[in-house]
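[Discussion] Sanity-checking designs against the backbone

I'm trying to build intuition for which residues belong where. Below is a C-alpha cell string of 146 positions. I'd appreciate it if someone posts a full sequence so I can compare it with mine line by line.
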C-alpha cells in the first residue's frame, strides 16, 4: 500500500476520531483503515461491546464522507487495532504485529510503550519503534489467531 494511503488514513483518523468520541460517550475509535480507493473502515470499541446499533450511529455521524466513500464500521475483532500511544500502553505484555512506514514487519511481545515509541521483543531482541512510524498495529489474540 502506498505511503500516501497511510497519510490519508492519518488525516481521516484525525478528523473522525474527535467527531465520534465527542458525540458518542465511551466510544473509542481504534483505527481508520483505507480498504480501497473508495472504501474505509472505522474500528470502534465501547466498554459494553459493539453492536449493530452502535455501528449504525457511527456511520450516521460520518454522513458527510458518504458522497466520496463507502464506510464500514466494525468492532475490534480478534486482531485488535492499536495505533495511539494509549492503545499500546494497554497492550503491554501482549503479542503484537506491527508494520512501519518503511515496510518493516515485526511480530513479538510488546514490552514497553510511551507517548513516543514502543518496544517489541522479537526472539529475545528488543526493537524500539517510534509510534509515528507505525502504520499498522494489531494485538494478536492469545488463541493463536494469525
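Best answer:
Here's mine. Compare freely.
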Amino acid at each position: 500500500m502506498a505511503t500516501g494511503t497511510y497519510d490519508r488514513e492519518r488525516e481521516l483518523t484525525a478528523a473522525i476520531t474527535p467527531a465520534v468520541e465527542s458525540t458518542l460517550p465511551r466510544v473509542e475509535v481504534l483505527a481508520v483503515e483505507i480498504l480501497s480507493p473508495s472504501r474505509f473502515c472505522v474500528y470502534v470499541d465501547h466498554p459494553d461491546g459493539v453492536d449493530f446499533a452502535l455501528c449504525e450511529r457511527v456511520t450516521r455521524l460520518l454522513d458527510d464522507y458518504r458522497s466520496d466513500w463507502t464506510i464500514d464500521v466494525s468492532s475490534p475483532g480478534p486482531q485488535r487495532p492499536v495505533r495511539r500511544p494509549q492503545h499500546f500502553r494497554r497492550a503491554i505484555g501482549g503479542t503484537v504485529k506491527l508494520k512501519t512506514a518503511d515496510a518493516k514487519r515485526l511480530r513479538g511481545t510488546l514490552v514497553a510503550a510511551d507517548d513516543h515509541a514502543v518496544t517489541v521483543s522479537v526472539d529475545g531482541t528488543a526493537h524500539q519503534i517510534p509510534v509515528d512510524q507505525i502504520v499498522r498495529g494489531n494485538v494478536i489474540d492469545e488463541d493463536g489467531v494469525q
